[in-house]
């Protein structure tokens, strides 16, 4: 279980767009990429929660799993905030793409 968590977490943390700190304010990752990363983290969270519920694990292991669950929930929340910011930016660009404050360009031949 720990190997799965470490493998997925390592993969996701190596991607610059998966980390809110790894992105610049001018270039947000795509919605599809963020959705994909959220899905992977949700899968990891589900596996960690299942592992924490298994009988026969020590208190130290259970505490470690609970800490990893909390970190994973925090990462999902950060990715969700980044997803919402990206969606808002794309919506803004789409709605304001054709707006020109000076009006339509004038034909020089008229």
Structure, explained:
- The protein has 110 residues and is mainly alpha-helical.
- The chain has a domain of 71 residues.
- It has three helices and no strands.
- About 8% of the residues have low confidence.
Low-pLDDT stretches are 16-24
What is the C-alpha radius of gyration, as a whole number of Å?
Answer: 21 Å
Distance between the termini: 73 Å
- Sheet/helix structural class: mainly alpha
Q: What's the count of strands?
A: 0
% residues in beta strands? under 5%
Order of helices and strands: HHH
- Biggest sheet statistics: none
General shape:
rod-shaped
Mean pLDDT: 80
- The helicity comes to 55-70%
Count the helices. How many?
A: 3
Keywords:
110 residues, 3 helices, 67% helix
List the helices and strands and how they pair.
Blueprint: H1 2-14, H2 31-53, H3 59-96
Helix pairs in contact: 1-2, 2-3
Compose a concise summary of this entry.
This protein has three helices and no strands.
